[in-house]
Write a structure and sequence with these properties.
single chain, 247 residues, mainly alpha, 86% helix
Length: 247
């Protein structure tokens, strides 16, 4: 009976955090969009949302399907009393994600982004900020991965907080300050604010995650390899790309 009550309480708390987080994230996104509409000229705000779409799809490619995979591996390892395997899964997923994120960011920063801006979007102002957009891709990729790691640990509270809520709140506050102090902005500054907000969120979430991982035992006997992870993640990766393409 106590076990059933514990599960019920966890589900209720997790559901409440997820619901409240979605509402708060939607509010901050609405507030950020409203502030951007007042800070940026129409050409800049159009370019900002085009870059946001480009960053989103590039981050999906960079994640290699690992966001769903890490939830499964961590939760499965903890449920079967293999905490060392959960720790190893996180380490390997972070390495693979870093590789994917750096490759995609490099493509954007060193010619690919400028080519897309000039030949596909026909936007000179977009091509000038592709270096920042590349950093944004790395931040977006890791923000989603870390949030899903927390979900694997059944920590819906931190998954909700660091899955975009902190980034949205910080961006909203900075944009509000810019609006009150100077009343205008440009595309470069708007993306820089978003990058700073995301970087701050990742720094905080990484510190909390390190503490969680330190509590888990490290073992050389944990049976998990990069090929094992990729066998799980590649079908999810293809599915994510197809889903985004049909949206």
């Amino acid at each position: 009976m106590l076990h059933k009550r514990s599960i019920k309480e966890k589900l209720l708390k997790g559901g409440a955090w997820a619901f409240a987080g979605k509402v708060a994230t939607a509010f901050t996104a609405l507030a950020v969009n409203a502030l951007l509409a007042r800070l940026l000229v129409p050409e800049d705000i159009g370019a900002y949302f085009l870059i946001l779409s480009l960053v989103s799809v590039t981050a999906i490619v960079a994640q290699l399907g690992l966001t769903q995979t890490i939830v499964r591996l961590v939760a499965e390892s903890l449920a079967t009393s293999r905490p060392a395997r959960a720790r190893l899964a996180v380490r390997l997923a972070v390495r693979l994600t870093a590789l994917g994120a750096l490759l995609m960011a490099g493509l954007l920063a060193f010619g690919g982004g400028a080519w897309l801006a000039d030949h596909f979007f026909h936007s000179q102002i977009m091509s000038k900020v592709m270096g920042l957009a590349a950093v944004w891709v790395v931040i977006n990729t890791f923000q989603q991965l870390i949030a899903e790691v927390y979900r694997g640990f059944h920590d819906i509270r931190l998954a909700t907080i660091f899955g975009g809520l902190v980034t949205g709140l910080l961006a909203m506050l900075i944009f509000l300050g810019l609006w009150l102090l100077q009343g205008y902005s440009d595309l470069h500054q708007a993306i820089l604010v978003t990058v700073i907000a995301g970087c701050s969120s990742i720094t905080l979430s990484s510190l909390f995650l390190l503490n969680k991982l330190k509590a888990l035992p490290a073992s050389t006997d944990a049976q998990l390899s990069i090929s094992d992870i990729m066998m799980i993640s590649w079908p999810l990766w293809v599915s994510n790309l197809m889903l985004f393409a049909t949206m």
